[in-house]
Amino acid sequence: EWDRWLLMGLIGIAVGILGFLTHQIIDCLIKLKWDLVENYVQVSKRTDLFFYLETHMDGNFHMTWICVLGFGLAMILVSSGSVLFFCPAGSASGLPEIIGYLNGTSMEHLFNIKTFLGTFVSCVLAVALGLFCGPEGPMIHLGAIMGCGLSHLQSDTLGIRLPFLSRFRNSADKRNFITAGAGAGIAAVLRAPVGGLLFTLEEASSSWDITLAWQTFCCCCLAATFTTDLLSSSFYGLVYRGHFGFFEVEKRILFWVCIVILAFIPTILLGVLGGLLGALFVSLNLKINKLRIQFFNSIPKPSLRKTSKLLEN
Q1: Scanning 56, 209, 238, 286, which has its CA 20 to 30 A from the CA of 228?
Q2: Residue 247 — φ and ψ, nearest 5°?
Q3: What confidence tier does 44 reach under pLDDT thresholds 50, 70, 90?
Q4: Does one domain contain both 263 and 217?
Q5: Mind telling me which residue stretches traverse the membrane in this protein (predicted)?
Q6: pTM here?
């Protein structure tokens, strides 16, 4: 089963890189839009200096408003057109479609490369424009597409079929990898690996086991923590900040170990303490509930039992 775990890790890393690119491109587009607005405002002020001296009012901002409006209309036309004409399967948020597929509903063109490209372009432009939407639903869809594509290593649209990992080309494994990819998508966009696992467990898939849970959690951790967070802390606006993640190469202690590694010691202690307290809470909760059920069952009269429950509240 090592190849299954390896493939889960590759899906997590790929979805994490996709989440990083999504965040970075959105930030770049937002910065580009407001840089254009700021530059145009400055130009308007300089050209309308005579108007300002005469009326004591700022420059003419009508053209600036038209510039912002035109920029927004162009983005929304491309965003809408990419899913309306290029890939109609990506016009929805993606979340209901993935939930439906994982629970037995087959949909056409849901996982092909055209849907992937159109959904990505539409998501990035819509979020950067500032519409009432977020990248969560599309990232779930994109993560599921990557899980499907990387596990099968084939594309009917491009006519590609690689002779590797052919044993995973079945319905059961396909759904498992799509589940992991969808969880990695929400984990990457929210940077919450546990959230990605809980999403797939509670919302997406109806077929579940403990092995798939660990594999999905591994995939979500690689997507959210190792890839998206690490790359996002090293780049801003697709520009390298000069350091890799939060590890400053100039600050070192004995044996050339990064000093930031010392921060892992209290983090590990807090994690162990939190786990022990959580286990204690769950154990006490189960015992208290068991005693509570035994107590209410020992009351013979239903009316008295209901009264006791009412007084308990």
Answers
A1: 209
A2: -95, 105
A3: low
A4: no
A5: 6-26, 65-91, 111-132, 177-200, 212-232, 253-282
A6: 0.71
